[in-house]
Amino acid sequence: FRTSPRLFFIISLILPGIAGIFSSIKNIYTECCGQQLTLDPPKRFRIIGGNSALEGAWPWQVSIQRTWRHICGGSIINHLWIMTASHCFKNSNNYKLHVMAGLRSRHKKGKHVQYRSVKRVILHEKFNESTYDNDVALLHLHHPLHFTKHVQPVCIIENEMQENQLNFSSCYITGWGSSIAKGTFVNILQEAEVQLIDTRTCNQRDWYNGHVNDNMVCAGFDKGGVDTCQGDSGGPLQCYSRDRERFYLYGVTSHGHGCAFPKKPGIYTRASRYTVWLREARTRSVSGASVTDLSLIKLILALFFSFCMNLLV
């Protein structure tokens, strides 16, 4: 059939928009990770008796809430999945469970906050409530997060070999948990720099007396004073790689003896030990998203060609 200059003009206007949609769909799976897009890496602060995080400082940190009340923290690992701790949930019931991303103040929701309901809770099948072994869980969101400067995924350590190669220069803990033992949750997101503590040291008799296994890591200070506390559970222990210039999820806040006691640092689930388990869930999420994306593409193309044919009539 013959086409008119008018049709060519309209097509030239529409095609870039379609290309942009395809590009945004592709970017869902190629996004950057572990980057603080609003500021430089933070200075030394503390959760226990410490300072507040700046806006956008930790864009992968989320608040997990039930009936709009904060219960635990979590880390964004991609647009549909949140990594957190199993002990935050008595069971896998997702009733009235949702996450808030891009959040700094729990009482004053800013323009950067994104709300997402939870579709499914996946607890590690070998989680031990007594020893806190395998204290890791995943939340599958109903709808994908929109990545911005204030909402970003954290990088995942692929294996223990990469963990040793990344040459971490500093590690930080974050959360809205209590600033004192058995206290109330804080309003503003807190941050603290901590040191990774050798497992052999952490397992000494006057420390944790052999409790810490290979699935766990200790972080804090031997003199105490800096630690996660109630309400920080599930949140990230994130470490900065100067070589890669980004943060990696080193651990998931799990448990400990009190808060900030000497020789009783926080114990975190070692994220690199769960990469295979994590990848299985991510693969399922990408497969599900691909079906949705294909349907969207078909709809756009159908509308586009229908519009063009109407112009020819």
From TrEMBL:
Top-rank EC class of the record's enzyme: hydrolase
Catalytic reactions of this protein: Preferential cleavage: Arg-|-Xaa, Lys-|-Xaa
EC number: 3.4.21.10
Keywords: Disulfide bond, Hydrolase, Protease, Serine protease, Signal
Residue stretches making up the Peptidase S1 domain: 47-283
GO annotation (BP), single: proteolysis
Signal peptide: 1-20
The keyword Disulfide bond appears for this protein: yes
Taxonomy, superkingdom: Eukaryota
Pfam annotation, one family: Trypsin
GO MF term set: serine-type endopeptidase activity
Keyword Signal: yes
PROSITE patterns cross-referenced by the UniProt entry: TRYPSIN_DOM (PS50240), TRYPSIN_HIS (PS00134), TRYPSIN_SER (PS00135)
Name of the protein this chain belongs to: Acrosin
Species: Triplophysa rosa
Source lineage: Eukaryota, Metazoa, Chordata, Craniata, Vertebrata
